[in-house]
């Protein structure tokens, strides 16, 4: 379990992280979200001990994080941190040795993960000879080869096609099942929504929304109604409680204030012919994110 308690970080007079608190339990995937400059990377660097905090406490399994604890941590950075003139084998040995692993153990794990990613032939290739997607896989292997108790993933899907995103997600879930605490950051809200149970949204270093994703969606009153059939946008816009109407190539999406207005929309829609879809859904995480970040900047 990782505990971040009332953590604050200044760069000179600039407040980068403002009284931030959250807990990630064993076997839990936690989303740390925010726009660029919100304080996510600073938070990650404080957690792993690369930056000193000005205030607060960070504990891993009840203990302050020091060099005795860092071997339990895996960190995939948003920026490429690979040594491009090294071979894949040399790169993995270098990083895994820093985590206290023995060479025979490293080589066995390396063979396993290269096979898992279908990259056995790259073992003796230099990093610079690999595609961006394969470089991202190697960087991921460096983060997980030590079977970390705490796994921090900052934009892990950069440069990956959908098949490899799916493979990364499967492996991340495997670490969850083994009991790892996982902190995940991405600008792709659909990725966060797929497997983060809890999250925090940062704006200018401060939490503006935090909690279980299911509770956040429940508390956010706006709903979306997806309609397929013979009805016009303009007619839908006239219905009480309708905030916005979006027409896509496949359907019309009606955004309403809350679920009390569903009946008003349905009353109009049921009078139309050829209605083949009327589906009420919670807002997407992307909608909630844009709303909360927008509100924070307007204050």
What does this molecule look like?
The chain has 299 residues and is an alpha/beta fold. The chain has two domains: 2-217, 3-Layer(aba) Sandwich (Rossmann fold); 221-281, Lrp/AsnC effector binding domain/regulation of amino acid metabolism (RAM) domain (Alpha-Beta Plaits). Helices cover 34% and strands 28% of the residues. The chain is built from ten helices and 14 strands. The protein has helices at 40-47, 88-98, 103-116, 132-144, 162-177, 189-195, 213-219, 233-237, 262-269, 285-298, and strands at 2-11, 14-24, 28-34, 55-60, 63-64, 73-76, 150-154, 181-185, 198-203, 206-212, 223-228, 242-247, 252-256, 277-281. The strands form three sheets. The protein has a six-stranded mixed beta sheet, sandwiched between helices. It starts with a strand and ends with a helix.
Short descriptors:
single chain; 299 residues; alpha/beta; Rossmann fold; Alpha-Beta Plaits; 2 domains; 6-stranded mixed β-sheet; 4-stranded antiparallel β-sheet; 10 helices; 14 strands
Topology (elements, then pairings):
Elements: E1 2-11, E2 14-24, E3 28-34, H1 40-47, E4 55-60, E5 63-64, E6 73-76, H2 88-98, H3 103-116, H4 132-144, E7 150-154, H5 162-177, E8 181-185, H6 189-195, E9 198-203, E10 206-212, H7 213-219, E11 223-228, H8 233-237, E12 242-247, E13 252-256, H9 262-269, E14 277-281, H10 285-298
Parallel strand pairs: 3-8, 3-9, 6-7, 7-8
Antiparallel strand pairs: 1-2, 1-4, 4-5, 9-10, 11-13, 11-14, 12-13
Helix pairs in contact: 2-3
């Amino acid at each position: 379990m990782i505990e971040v308690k009332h953590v604050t970080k200044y760069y000179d007079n600039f407040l980068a992280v403002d009284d931030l608190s959250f807990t990630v339990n064993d076997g839990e995937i936690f989303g740390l979200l925010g726009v660029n400059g919100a304080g996510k990377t600073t938070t990650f660097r404080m957690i792993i001990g690369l930056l000193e905090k000005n205030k607060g406490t960070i504990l891993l399994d009840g203990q302050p994080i020091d060099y005795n604890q860092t071997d339990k941590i895996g960190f995939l950075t948003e920026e490429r941190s690979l040594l491009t003139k090294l071979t894949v084998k040399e790169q993995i040995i270098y990083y895994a040795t820093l985590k206290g692993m023995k060479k025979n153990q490293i080589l066995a794990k390396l063979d396993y993960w290269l096979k898992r990613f279908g990259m056995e032939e790259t073992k003796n290739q230099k990093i610079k000879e690999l595609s961006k997607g394969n470089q991202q896989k190697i960087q991921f292997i460096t983060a997980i080869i030590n079977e970390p108790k705490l796994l921090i993933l900052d934009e892990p899907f950069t440069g990956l096609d959908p098949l490899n995103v799916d493979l990364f997600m499967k492996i991340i879930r495997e670490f969850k099942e083994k009991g790892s605490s996982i902190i995940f950051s991405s600008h792709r809200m659909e990725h966060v929504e797929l497997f983060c149970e809890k999250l925090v949204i940062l704006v200018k270093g401060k939490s503006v929304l935090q909690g279980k994703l299911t509770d956040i969606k429940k508390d956010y009153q706006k709903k979306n109604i997806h309609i397929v059939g013979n009805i016009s946008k303009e007619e839908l816009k006239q219905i009480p409680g309708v905030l916005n109407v979006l027409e896509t190539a496949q359907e019309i999406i009606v955004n309403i204030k809350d679920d009390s207005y569903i009946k008003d929309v349905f009353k109009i829609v049921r009078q139309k012919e050829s209605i083949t879809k009327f589906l009420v859904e919670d807002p997407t995480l992307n909608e909630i994110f844009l709303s909360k970040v927008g509100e924070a900047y307007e204050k």
